[in-house]
Amino acid sequence: MTWSDADLGLLPALPMLYVAWADGELTDRELDLLRSSCNLEGLDAWLDPQQRPSATRLRLLLSRIRAAARDLDLDQRHDLVDLGLAIARVEGADWDPKAVESLRALQDALGFHGAEAVAEFLPAGTEVPSPESASVVETSTLAQALDEPRPWVRHETRALLEEPDFQHVGEIGTDAYRTKVFQWLRVLASRGLGGLAFPTSERHDTGAFLAAFETLAFFDLSLVVKFGVQFGLFGGAIRFLGTAEQQRRWLPQVASLDVPGCFAMTELGHGSNVRELETRAVYDPGRDQFIVTTPRVSAQKDWIGNAAVHGRLAVVFAQLEVGGQDHGVHALVVPIRGPRGGARRGVRVVDCGLKMGLNGVDNGRLSFHQVRVPRDHLLGRFAWIDDEGQYQSPIASPTRRFFSMLGTLVGGRIAVAGASLSVAKVALAVSLGYAGRRRQFGPGPGEEVRLIEYPSHQARLFPALVETLVLHLAVHALQRDYADAVDRGGELRGLESGAAALKVRSSRHGVATARAGREACGGRGYAAVNRFAALCADAEVFQTFEGDNTVLVQLVAKDVLTRFRGQFSDGRLLGLARHLETLGSLLLREKNPIVRRLRSEAHLVTRDLHRDLLHGRELELTQQVAGSIASDMALGASPFEAFRDNQLGVLALGEAHIDRLVFEQVERELERVDAPDARHVLDRALTTWALGRLVADRAWFLEHGYLSTDKSKALVLEHSSLLTELAPDVEIVVEAFGIPAQALGAPIAG
Amino acid sequence: MTWSDADLGLLPALPMLYVAWADGELTDRELDLLRSSCNLEGLDAWLDPQQRPSATRLRLLLSRIRAAARDLDLDQRHDLVDLGLAIARVEGADWDPKAVESLRALQDALGFHGAEAVAEFLPAGTEVPSPESASVVETSTLAQALDEPRPWVRHETRALLEEPDFQHVGEIGTDAYRTKVFQWLRVLASRGLGGLAFPTSERHDTGAFLAAFETLAFFDLSLVVKFGVQFGLFGGAIRFLGTAEQQRRWLPQVASLDVPGCFAMTELGHGSNVRELETRAVYDPGRDQFIVTTPRVSAQKDWIGNAAVHGRLAVVFAQLEVGGQDHGVHALVVPIRGPRGGARRGVRVVDCGLKMGLNGVDNGRLSFHQVRVPRDHLLGRFAWIDDEGQYQSPIASPTRRFFSMLGTLVGGRIAVAGASLSVAKVALAVSLGYAGRRRQFGPGPGEEVRLIEYPSHQARLFPALVETLVLHLAVHALQRDYADAVDRGGELRGLESGAAALKVRSSRHGVATARAGREACGGRGYAAVNRFAALCADAEVFQTFEGDNTVLVQLVAKDVLTRFRGQFSDGRLLGLARHLETLGSLLLREKNPIVRRLRSEAHLVTRDLHRDLLHGRELELTQQVAGSIASDMALGASPFEAFRDNQLGVLALGEAHIDRLVFEQVERELERVDAPDARHVLDRALTTWALGRLVADRAWFLEHGYLSTDKSKALVLEHSSLLTELAPDVEIVVEAFGIPAQALGAPIAG
Predict the structure, then answer these.
(1) Annotated catalytic, A546?
(2) Do A624 and B50 touch (CB under 8 A)?
(3) Is the pLDDT of residue B482 over 70?
(4) What was the ipTM of the complex prediction?
(5) Which residue among B273, B355, B631 places its CB closest to the CB of A528?
(6) Does domain B409-546+738-744 have CATH number 1.20.140.10?
């Protein structure tokens, strides 16, 4: 650690210069002050407003000052000038006492005071590591933290994926691919992975089923989807909507794959709007049977997995009619194929044909022409026909009954969220691995530099790595909550919004990361053998199925708006008062002119700041959107119109809520991580992610008075410097994901 | 047009309320003023700061006031209160004279004065259309404008694509697909489309070649790429790097496809860094031949189109060595296959195998083991070996010679830009068509609403439509400039940066639009038959080949920085002075406290504002990045390190430059559009696009003092209201793209 001659004379001023620049750009006033009040030699080079020192230069300066500061006694560090003088003394440098006097005046004028300003240079475990530094955490420690909950089934599934049979298919026709996936599925069933989902099985463990699903997604997404259709959706519908008797009758055969089946909800005319679906099931008391019918083209069951080839039974969602009366959407078990694979009488199956991806899954379109099924094929947990042919249900409200039927979807969404993150992890493992080996361009002939050393490369992949870690923790927390709720037989509706939120965020992130990884690998990323072809194409539809992402964000926002309205209806003014109090105290704190200009590093990385800003944005958007909807309705708009016309606000509110939800969920989840070094890495990931979210939407925060422009710029700098600090941990984090080598394929040569 | 009872009493105040809200959110001060100074009944509902009126409500109010204003005499429209009173009079409404007096006081306090404020309500052709309004332009008029330049070849190519042979392939193996594409290519060659590219052909017309390429991209991208490899890259290399004699020898066979060929530049170890490629061509004076060799694995020519199956010749880029001296990268014509398709001795070909997309193109990896070619196979326009075995070149500087060799790439980049936009057009045609038919959710059972009526759907697709129009004009301008330059035999380097800029922006836009279209079509978008599978997978690599986008943005920025530095070196201070003067006058204008708060609709849509902001950002970034690089170097960083450490700033500068370039290019191009209604539509597209670019980066403009927060919010509103106004034109714009019906496939049912 030596200083250049040019800097030696400047030593007393350097800490102050660092602080001045590091907090954002210097204002003209500040520059004038600096220039006019102090004439240390070499100072000019630091004071050109058009030549802001680069982040690298500042980082170097910081680590040099920190290193020097480490050797000083505590009492030599009163303020920035003292610190500079102390360093100069140690380094044996000369300085001009007059200049130093003017430095002190300047320090006062700029308002850089005392311990807080000096704190930045104290080596309190906040040393900035260079990309060459060693990581602070061991792979195994981090892996252990990431493998919770249900680590045992993750290990078991990884071992399975290393067996010789689980090799990626190359160019293979659709028929052969479907057959291959079905064979793989048989293996999974025979090892009892399907049975994890069902109380009729000895291995029953809801959390383990989700963990297995997530781990399988490292390998082949057609297999994962087929696994999900059979055990999660088809079996899940029987498990959640069927009686105990119906579960005993069907679930063992579902678990063993003796009876492959379908989940027939979506219709050609009604994807997202399930309540309006048109398939009919009419009870015929004469023969004590239901007659299932597809009344028109738009009522065909579309995109049904397992329908084109393998499915023998289907859980069919239909409008139930009993004694001439409609009872809304209910689920029935309908045989669609005989034991030899031929379609049952009255059942018509059309193959959905070639898709963008997931061609190992046999999607089909089903229609029913007077198909009769016995009375006890109506899944009877929430409603049944009694022996007198009367409709019975313990749930009086048709709306509540409808939502009970949809409860099946919650688990599916959590599963998709986990699988999406596995996609992101594979994409990051391949692309970061390549970036660590591949060299391109350099200072001279034959001296090319590794891709990972380029800021553009880091900017493309590091934020994705951070978001993967954060969403990983959020999804794992939700896996635990869901498994607890299911195993307690409890209410799932409380998890609906959170499941939708994480399904949206994770599926979007999975696809985006797969694409970013492809681009980061250039032409190599385009070769099918390097996984991106399948990752991009297969995961694409994760954004659409199990609930279209745009529809789900609105579901999340509606939930926020409903709770907001609820605060008013019970105890009206009290609720409003409470809301305004929270918002008010937030605004008081964050819109305070001092706070909104605060920009020390210590302040920018605090949880409180992040929580306040994320929370404040959500509260303001809630009030704004709710108010705008209410006033549109006051002007005569129908609720539907008012909601639609405010749709962009609703979506912004949904996204803001998801940000806060993820933040708080991960904050809580971090408390479960025992190993301090693993916790440190994950904790920093959350800070970096939160800063990233604020930076991405800083225009909103600026426009709504939460940030001064200087603080906004300081956030950008802090975020990018935290990202850079990730470099030494990248390899370890990727290894800790625990992707089976075989699933990853051969590494791309450098 | 009737008013509700609640609004009748408010009529005198409504114009003012509209203006107050429409320019952004009201400040607390303004609200207090309004509330305290005026007590018209019903006013409170309009003054809740948390219940900003929705865009819809404001739009309704605007059109109602406008409709009323139309019936008034001009002299009744002095100011907003007069306007309100006149309307109230016409409507026979009562009002309280005291309240009106306070309204006038208020008008003064808020500074809403005179004709400018009232102008907003004058029906001067600025009526806000509802989605149901008719478009202002005819399809054929717009199509005519969009088909320039070289409309004839676009018509000819469209007709070709309607022939029965040009049907999309469904599920087809790679071998069969490659054969099919080669057959199609034979048809194109036989119709003389390849010959367009070559001066040896009667049909030679560089602009027409680019127009044909762009039109073919409506259909199958494997065919387009194969077309580009054969005629654009392989043939183009001979055309641009070969002597007249070499052109006459080879080009007729290239044009007729009798000799399929390859463009062998990229190497396994060197994709973007062409200058460092390792293949060697050593001149052997004894036998007057070159010996072409692949010295190591990383020197293999990789991803070479036409190499795996069809290519017979290859233009190989290699380091040329003559008499023991290296002369840098040169191109040689090397036979790789005999007439029967077997590889020539010493040539090794490996099939690149399955890719994410473009599987109709046979990419291969080539290596050479002591392959001998005659002396006259060195493409000799810029360098040759004379009869004495001496190296000769009219270009003294090796660097300039190297860039002359790379000039071949310019045309390819322009071609890829055009093809990328065709991808976007197909994606928009399919998704907007579906959105116009498909209904989902609605105010009540059986009353579902078309997807296109949802703001979220518009927000996803309309900006893409606008950007497609804008980039279309920019790319067509470049097609014209390029064809002129080539046909004049002029210098292409001046077009290099622009070609790179539009290649980057268009390829990114094409892929993003294909993905957005897929998502907008939900599950239907996932079926291969609906085109998105191919569009997404095939166009993905457009971001990487013909120059990786990240590398190209840096090329663009380097060009800006070089010119900036150039301003200093010739006449040093004068250049700097000129730069500072431009920047200064911009800052003076745009950072002026009045201007940065201006937010009337008329101001927000002016070209001058947009140009100033785009220009100002570019100039500030130029100075900042140049300064930062210079000061890093002053601190001892090598040029390479300094550039790399400032890479993110360099990329931001490149993007800012591209924005301004596109803006100014399209501004000029609009002057060529004669039909006023077509021009109106395209003009508005440019305004909407420019606003969109400013809105997307408004955090930067806020942080750098160009916008007040109120003006920023007003820009957001103006942008979204302009997007909404697009609705009546959507169908016509899409039709005007002129996508052959057969290329589009069957429309998805609603």
Answers:
(1) yes
(2) yes
(3) yes
(4) 0.83
(5) B355
(6) yes
